[in-house]
Amino acid sequence: MKSSTLMVILVLQAVLVMGIFAAVAKENESKGNTETNGGKLKCCSSCNFSFSGLYTCEDVVKKCDPVCKSCAVVKTHPVKKFKCTDTFLGMCGPPCKH
């Protein structure tokens, strides 16, 4: 009984902390303090999600998604490859089909 009560308390604390981080991230975004892309990628297979509610997509692709504001070259030889370096608020898109 005590261990299940403790588990419920720990889960509720984790949810509370995640909610606070997400609210702070959203407030910072609305004030223009962070460079967060408000769009949503069509897909992302290597999603890097943080507890603040922000994520980045680590996919290396032939061409960045049109919603990406900052597309960086990460490989030049033998074929040029890119990665979107934007930070997104919310959830990752579905996995990409290769």
UniProtKB/TrEMBL annotation:
InterPro entries xref list: Bowman-Birk_prot_inh, Prot_inh_BBI, WIP1
Superkingdom of source: Eukaryota
Keywords recorded for this protein, A-Z: Disulfide bond, Protease inhibitor, Signal
Entry annotated with the keyword Signal: yes
Example of a GO MF term: serine-type endopeptidase inhibitor activity
Stretch forming the signal peptide: 1-22
Protein name: Bowman-Birk serine protease inhibitors family domain-containing protein
GO CC annotations on file: extracellular region
Domain Bowman-Birk serine protease inhibitors family, first and last residues per copy: 57-71
Family annotation (SUPFAM superfamilies): Bowman-Birk inhibitor, BBI
